[in-house]
Design goal:
Layout (H helix, E strand, L loop, with lengths): L27 H11 L9 E5 L3 E6 L2 E6 L2 H17 L12 E3 L9 E5 L4 E2 L7 H5 L2 H13 L20 H14 L7 H11 L12 E3 L8 E3 L5 E4 L6 E3 L2 H9 L3 H11 L4 H26 L2 H16 L3
Antiparallel strand pairs: 1-2, 2-3, 3-5, 4-5, 6-8, 7-10, 8-9
Length: 322
């Protein structure tokens, strides 16, 4: 979910009304052809769509989740995933996808793709979690982000190359695009008072990011990418298409979009010291990307569960400051 990405069409690609509409989406017949041809030993009897987002379609079969880029950006991003995720997996306290089955362009489908073993858990946007439930996971989430942001990249010749963030830290642009979406998508679940408050928040002056060093980022951390197991524990983190080096506020947005206000201070107590400026930038990122833009996306595609989750996020963000 990248409300701050420049919405530029690739050459030869027809203009689309919304940035989440795919340029080369993979339907069930496409998935069957690509997987069946390149991995003939897998059974396709129970092939099903596991999820679809802005950049990728994910199809599940025989215990394998196949990640297919559906836009040019996703096709570029998957190259970073293929290089970095196998190296990164052993350095983190939670499970992440490990690409094992590597697919190549075929027919009219232009991108590489990969399969990984399906990870345990369900997206936290699809299950019932109370504020207390999420709050109890603040320490686990903080430990994960502390580990991720502490990974040293480029410290040896064997380490992978990770791209520097080229657009995500443009929080002003993200705010403007979120407001454009709010004006163009029919969102009936927000009151007029809430919309006015959102406009006020997203047009406020942002603090400067300062001189913080760039860290290794997930880049798009919110409810849909956090998997919760049957015991209610945070089990895995998925969808690493925005993996990059950048300002940690981009990942810390999850503190505001996912954790209830009473749990936030406990998160920072476990994660480590963070300035007020970084917290405010994280809060703005949460409101623009994983609040307003996510809500507009959910309403436009008819995802009622995600709509409810985005509403919860927005109201939690507006409830208190950083």
């Amino acid at each position: 979910m990248r409300g701050e990405e420049e919405m530029v069409q690739s050459p030869g690609v027809e203009s689309t009304a919304y940035p989440w509409q795919g340029e080369f989406p993979v339907d069930i017949e496409g998935a069957r052809a690509l997987i069946g041809t390149q991995f003939p030993d897998l059974s396709l009897a129970n092939l099903e769509l596991l999820g679809s987002g802005w950049d990728n379609d994910v199809w599940l079969t025989d215990g394998w989740a196949f990640r297919f880029p559906r836009r040019a950006f996703g096709a570029q991003a998957i190259e970073t995933e293929l290089e970095v995720l196998p190296w990164l997996a052993s350095k983190l306290p939670l499970a992440i996808p490990r690409p094992q089955l590597l697919g190549i362009p075929q027919g009219k489908y232009p991108a590489r793709f990969y399969g990984h073993r399906k990870l345990e858990g369900e997206g936290s946007d699809t299950i019932t979690l109370s504020g207390d439930d999420r709050g109890r996971l603040a320490g686990t989430l903080a430990g994960f982000l502390r580990a991720l942001h502490g990974v040293e990249v480029g410290d040896s010749e064997e380490g992978p190359e990770v791209p520097l963030d080229g657009f995500r830290s443009n929080l002003r642009g993200a705010s403007e695009r979120a407001l454009q979406l709010l004006a163009s998508v029919a969102v009936e679940s927000l009151s007029d008072a809430e919309k006015e408050r959102i406009i006020e928040e997203l047009t406020a002056v942002l603090p400067d990011p300062g001189e913080e060093a760039a860290v290794l980022l997930h880049g798009d951390l919110y409810s849909r990418h956090l998997l919760i197991d049957d015991g209610g524990s945070l089990a895995a983190v998925i969808d690493w298409g925005d993996l990059c080096l950048g300002e940690r506020a981009l990942d810390l947005a999850v503190v505001y979009s996912w954790l209830p206000p009473p749990a936030r201070q406990g998160f920072f107590g476990e994660y480590g010291e963070v300035s007020g400026e970084v917290r405010e930038r994280a809060r703005r990122r949460a409101l623009s990307n994983h609040g307003v833009s996510l809500l507009c996306y959910a309403c436009q595609v008819g995802d009622s569960l995600l709509e409810s989750d985005a509403l919860r996020a927005i109201r939690g963000i507006l409830e208190s400051g950083p």
